[in-house]
């Protein structure tokens, strides 16, 4: 396979545990204020990039995730183009679910769709543990990527158990995730079995990425905003902690991100992460207040502003950075993933601006 | 047309402004604590009822809304069945949009879908004001309904301008409403024109219902949870206030409801309403705290619990009622609309329980 753009990266560096320790991203996640404000974008690898769209022609999404050459190249594309301070491994939160034998595909324009939703005790009892050998294409994709990235850190990621469970129970994307939220109350034992399986499956996926060389780990609980604090604390957080326990003892900082997470920010921090990702709904100074002023924050440029005139967007980015100073450290990012119709030159311009602030 | 169930209502009462003034609902909305805790359910008229599904066979949703005999009968069905303390007029928030000449249909399982999204300054400049004469089928549906309801109040309702604008700009339901949120920042003048039109169109729809006999009015801002407080206050709230100004001088209490509205509760109250509807994400005592302890609350049974065992649901309803005591008054409701697959006997049981609390 040919790299569509292949000039802009530093030469390959040997793998070494300390190779990214001095990077702005890792330093910020550890609570430091590096000279350069680190910036990356959720979903930076993907459809906003013409070189990605070209590379994906003829390949299904989950097949691309399981092809180490492709997943690595796609991960590197936005790092070359935007000169962001981190790559995030190109994959999907349902990849470990698929590798554990659950029938699921990513339907374009819709998201993950299961062959059949899992709704009963029997459905869930049939789930198989993930065979670690199945994660080999992930490990290989990460290894290739970090060799190319050199001193630029790679972020490994995984979906949190609740978000996975929402897809599994609903059978696909859903509004309010009411069937999943019903199950947690209607049949707590089945919920426990499902969430335990999800935690161990996604935890193994995250561990494989870190062992293969990722320098940080982000847990995405995309749908956490549908929960009350009480339900989150009692029926969700313990499983997120269990997922993260799979990387205990591996010395990488952890980020935890959710959409609409204003009510549960501190509880998300308390499952055992170093930094909390904040969407666009609350400003970072308010987020930091809710976190007791002692937690690193990531975010929170409103993706809706990416299509506003540059003067409006620039003022917003500067405001985000200014409010981020309320926290011990800040990693600049969007408040949600890059939309496919985003003009990628705008993202590059944000990186250039961030590196002057 | 035959009424499917037609026995359980009190005999028709003459229309009179004071006919529902002593009802538990109206008293609670005015800040009183009536002997009976008033209860009704958002989307109580609809697909959860077999008598509704029977009546709707062969009729499109928006055609049903514009047939006074049908809209009235559908509105009355849940009042007869559940003995709730209010009817809510059977309609849809896009009805006034359609009556103003915009091509829109309700697609089953999806929601309102426009013939073409409205995204440019020119699209929006072409919007026509709503001819008051077009509201005649609404007024007639309400008049028929209140004659049957007697001392039981009817709630009129309308969608808030932001929620309407989200449908208009996106062309249908959407996640995060990013195109609408982009427009408000990218082209504030066009946003102002769109929101002003939406406020006047939906305001006229609400006014027609109140003039025809509705005893209360609810403004639904379903998608308000996608907004930051800053955007809401600056770019949305003024238009919600404008919509409600259409019923200034008509002496009915006003309820304002949004989903995921924890960040904007007090700002929603401040557009000029008497009561605030709260979804399931925050408990009513916390909602009341955010409202300064001086605002009537409505809600907030979690719809996800409607399929839990009765003992779990009963404990939840009792907890909601107990926490609602933190507010000056409380109207019991769900935190969101009744799901179509809800067992309606559960709703009846909640009403029976509420009336003992």
From TrEMBL, chains A, B:
UniProt-recorded name of the protein: Uroporphyrinogen decarboxylase
PROSITE patterns in the record: UROD_1, UROD_2
Residue(s) at site: Transition state stabilizer: 92
Binding site for substrate: 43-47, 92, 167, 222, 336
Chief place where the protein resides: cytoplasm
GO BP, sorted A to Z: protoporphyrinogen IX biosynthetic process
GO cellular component terms given for this protein: cytosol
Compartments where located: Cytoplasm
Gene Ontology molecular-function annotations: uroporphyrinogen decarboxylase activity
Entry similarity comment: Belongs to the uroporphyrinogen decarboxylase family.
Keywords assigned by UniProt, alphabetized: Cytoplasm, Decarboxylase, Lyase, Porphyrin biosynthesis
Classification via InterPro entries: UROD/MetE-like_sf (IPR038071), Uroporphyrinogen_deCO2ase_HemE (IPR006361), Uroporphyrinogen_deCOase (IPR000257)
Pathway: Porphyrin-containing compound metabolism; protoporphyrin-IX biosynthesis; coproporphyrinogen-III from 5-aminolevulinate: step 4/4
Assembly information from the UniProt record: Homodimer.
HAMAP family, A to Z: URO_D
EC numbers for this chain: 4.1.1.37
Pfam family, one: URO-D
Domain Uroporphyrinogen decarboxylase (URO-D) span(s) in chain numbering: 38-47, 155-171
Lineage: Bacteria, Bacillati, Actinomycetota, Actinomycetes, Micrococcales
Catalysed reactions, semicolon-separated: uroporphyrinogen III + 4 H(+) = coproporphyrinogen III + 4 CO2
Keyword Lyase found: yes
Cleaved signal peptide residues: none
Function noted in UniProt: Catalyzes the decarboxylation of four acetate groups of uroporphyrinogen-III to yield coproporphyrinogen-III.
